[in-house]
Amino acid sequence: MLTKTVTAASLTDDVARLTLADVVGLEVGYTTRTAGVGHPFDGQHTITAVDTTELWIEYEKNHANIVEVDVTGLLEVLVTWADDADVVDFLGVEPASQSDEDYLALCVEAANSWVFERRRKSGYSDLPNAVPGSDVKLGTILYAGSLYRERGSVDSFASFQDMPTVAPVGTMGQILRLIGCNRPRVH
After folding, report:
1. Is 187 inside any structural domain?
2. Pick from 77, 100, 135: which residue ends a domain?
3. How many domains is the chain built from?
4. Cα separation of 158 and 145, whole Å?
5. Are residues 93 and 157 in the same domain?
6. What is the pTM assigned to this prediction?
7. CA dist., res. 137 & res. 142, Å (int)
8. I need a surface site. Which of 14, 35, 88, 97 has the fewest CB within 10 A?
9. Distance CA 89, CA 82 (A)
């Protein structure tokens, strides 16, 4: 996950501006989450402008004007390769409660981040808002679904007590193949 340090923030005419330590890798259209900057800047936003000279990004924010203040916060670019609906389709069931929905969202975000980071460490140069292919998307969905299904279990899919315990076979190997990791990268 791409993470940046926020050093200053301002809001003018419903446009928030965050000054960052650097803007390398940030692009218009990226979905970001800001934390530690303070109200009304913290939260999820979509970048509408990037200045590589003065090191700031902007996004729309409906709020009263705020003069620039020095802050210490964090901005992270969210990977949006799979979403909750993709994983619900894979699971074949809707979450039963708000708690389940929140957990599903957490699993999807974790899977997106993990697959993006795993591919980055394997030498791929992917964009966080554009899935590289249907194979990578499927691998991300499978991983998010696996995380969700493991809720409440010790080390794998939850199982019924009276049934023989059999470890799931092939799931992680299949996920790694789909996302292009643990094999030589072809140029």
Report:
1. no
2. 77
3. 2
4. 13
5. yes
6. 0.75
7. 9
8. 97
9. 11
